[in-house]
Amino acid sequence: MAIKKQFGGATIRKPGAYSRSQTSPDAGGQSAETGVLMLIGEADAGPGGSAEGIQRYSAAAFNQLKAKYRSGPIVDAAKAALAPSRTPGIGGAGTFLIWKTNASLQASLALANTYGTVKAREYGVGGNRITYKATLSGETAPTISGSADVTAFGSLDTQTLLLRVNGGAAQTVTFASPANMTDVVSQINGVVAGLASDDSGTLKLTLPAASNGHRDGKGRTLEVSGGSALGNLFLVAELASAAAEPEVSLELIQPRDSLTESGVVGGDIAVQLGRDSTGSCTAATVAISGTAMTLTQTGATPSSIVLSFTDYPLIGNLVDAINDLAGWTATCPSSKRSQESSTLDQVSATGAFSAVAAAMPARIKQDAQAVADFFDSSALAELAAAPTCGLPDAEGRSNLTGGARGASSSSGFDAGLSAALAEDLNCILPCISQDAATDISSGLTDASSTYDIETVHAMLDTHLRLRGSIKNRKEAQGVVGYRKQSKTDCFEQAAKMGSELIQLCMEDVLLVDSTNELAWKQPHMMGALLAGMRMGSEIGEPLTHKFLSCQGVGHFVNASTGVAQGDYDSQVDFDEAIQAGVTSAESAAGSFRIMLDNTTYGADENFVFNRGSVVEAAQYIAKTIRGDAEAAFVGRKNSVVTAESIKNRIRAKLVELYNGKITSPSEDAPQGFVEESFIVTVVGNTAEVQVEVKPVQGLDFVFITFTLGETRQSA
């Protein structure tokens, strides 16, 4: 048996030098993501979260967020969180996760003849202002005229004229002693109603107007096939088609945005085809479905030919295949060859037989596709349940109707929180501050909304604890607003929450909203500023005394008058607010700043749980060390991963956190962790790590004792 060696997972038999490259256990590393803010609440436009789930936008894509949701609490909060502070060095949120609680409805207009439904792309009441208009232009009917005046009426007796309409069966006119043009016209019209007319002595054949021909998806033809009367009528065998096909001018207008979209579509003949009498064929038709073209040929073999769009995906492929069939002729404009066969109008059996050499009476359009393309390129509306053939009927200017803001409920907020469990994020802000009943009276939500502010607060706390559990490992913080006229009610709500993971704001703020108006907004908007500052500052940076980017702060402000009607005064009631767990603002240096980066915890004087910045640092440390350890060690052999290598790796990461000022030095922890109690134990497939870290804290107090000494002088 040959000698073999194992190296790098390979079996080696051939002598030689082999190598592999690997990184040392302490190389590389992971850091937790920061700057991700989730907003849950209402907007004036856009589909609801129940329809499309959580939507992600970078800060740079705020204009896309605004274009979709237009205005309302979510957009207001996102705008505020982008540039939340006047303090130098404080940025804003880097990424937004959006869950819209109100399922807005699209305005719509059902078109005549079940052609489809025009639906506003915008969700909400704004779509009700969109108007639709369709104006049809008619066909110039197929016409054949004689080359000279008819005079030999006596010679026409018993002579024949053979006619075909739209590639159908031949129709024979047998003249019976016509005495003049009136008799000639009358006898022809007796066979094909309305076809013939006297054009100053010359015979003129014109197909009468079709009823709703714009719906058909195919062009019309008139054929003079032959007959003994051709010479006396000064006609020749020929096929005539419409000089102009029906078109439709479509127009959509959104007056709110001064936006008009218009276009003339339809009327293009995409494919022409015909069948002659080769192989004893006496009649032929073409039919088109969404998946195939079917050719029938009476008297010839085979009687039916199916050309699948799977086999012939492009119109050019289809035309080439038809031309390879005995007796068939087809053509298409060069611009149509590379277009998909499935874009052809779906038509039922359409005449395709002609006695005129190489004539092609079947003329297939792409009218439905042209209309679909117009709406596909529209920023205002889409066409739902679109038809497969023809053009829409004419319609005067009509408004779309039925657009609605949609209602929100507590369960809608809970659904957003449940969806958030699958996301990595740093902070969650419910964009409400009071019960639905109060917002309804102010016109701020739909009349059927039912959310309860205390319930949403409790849901948020439950969610944050669930996502931060040992198994879920997705720690995050929350910010909420609470708007009551009585400061006592606000203090009681903060104390009742008692959560180290949540900060509560109770003051209204004056700022420029998503509609670019300076307006008073509810306390959750101060929460948006707070969350934005948290996302846009260094990990563990206290928000205490950081300035808000707003024009005013007040308790329970009347949005119309700007007068504060609440009883809280931050210059007087600060001790009560802090004790209750409220994050409040105070005036300073002509602006407004956060008084204290306070959580609602309040159970004791825990230095971590009472400060939002320290909770943030502690969460970041846990995420970073945990994520890095998992990436470096899980799934590797315990003969390679030792307790020492784990300890060295974690120690290096802890030093990195210290250098990043996310941990602080201490007498027992010069680099932010206590080396003496840092223990790593590996037993079988499990490593257990114990280490004490010192998350960075903000300096809240400076106590100065002045000794006032008496002056002395001597000379």
The secondary-structure class comes to alpha+beta
> How do the strands of the widest beta sheet line up side by side?
4-5-3-28-29-30
Tally of individual helices: 15
- Low-confidence regions: 21-28
Beta content comes to 25-35%
Enter the CATH topology name of the largest domain: Rossmann fold
Can you tell me the number of structural domains? Answer: 4
Distance between the termini: 112 Å
According to DSSP, the number of beta strands is: 37
CATH architectural label of the largest domain: 3-Layer(aba) Sandwich
- What's the gyration radius in Å? 40 Å
Please, what is the average pLDDT?
A: 94
Helix-residue proportion: 10-25%
Shape: elongated
CATH class of the largest domain: Alpha Beta
Main sheet overview: 6 strands, mixed
Can you put this structure into words, describing what you see?
This protein is α+β, with helices and mostly antiparallel strands and 715 residues long. It folds into 4 domains: 36-103 and 407-541 and 599-603, Rossmann fold (3-Layer(aba) Sandwich), CATH 3.40.50; 106-135 and 268-383, no CATH class; 143-241; 615-690. 22% of the residues lie in helices and 25% in strands. It has 15 helices and 37 strands. A 6-stranded mixed β-sheet has the order 4-5-3-28-29-30, with helices on both faces. A 4-stranded antiparallel β-sheet has the order 18-17-8-27, with helices on one face. β12 (196-199) and β13 form a beta hairpin. α3 runs parallel beside α12, α8 runs parallel beside α10 (453-467) and α11 (487-497) packs parallel to α13. It is elongated and about 150 Å long.
